[in-house]
Amino acid sequence: MKKFFGILFAVLLLASCSPFALVNSETYNDANLAQYKTFRIVSPADGDLPPGMEMVTYYNIAAAIREQMLERGFTEDPTSPMLINIGLTVHREIETQPAVPPGIPPYPGPYYNGYYPYFMYPRYNYWQNYYSNAQVITGIYKEGVLTMDFVNIDTKVPLYSASVATILNGNGQPQFRNLSGIAEAVQTLFSRFPVPLLPQYRTK
Description:
about 200 residues
């Protein structure tokens, strides 16, 4: 029943005027993210950019995530155990390159037409296939999905994951390829984040 309402919620969001829909928001291992005071965002030095993602897109997405975290009282620290990993699926650009290496069980979470988000830091380094309580939603969004994972990189324990879906614009690119689209997409990613905004950043 819980999964049904989650899917229904995603469908209703897609029917609204916003080009973005939150299709996944899950906390794992009973993680209390408020206990973490610092964070760090995956960088190209940790892995590879997903196919179709340019450096400017990465920096803009990272900046939008950073803003959301700072507004929740976290401090960015390159030595933080809490790593925020970024994944991207753009079907037209990776349809011949599956994101899951051969022999690795499929990951839970949203995917498009059999393809999972391609993560900058390889997800199989920390994501075990027994995390099976995540929603798997197919056929709801049309072309693209942006996903972020929170993981305790020291212990390889997943903490939280969220995904936002979008359609392509008239140029055949996802809406999160421009600054305003990225800001709205990341705001949607954090819309059900378990740590709220600090009072001074909340809208009345």
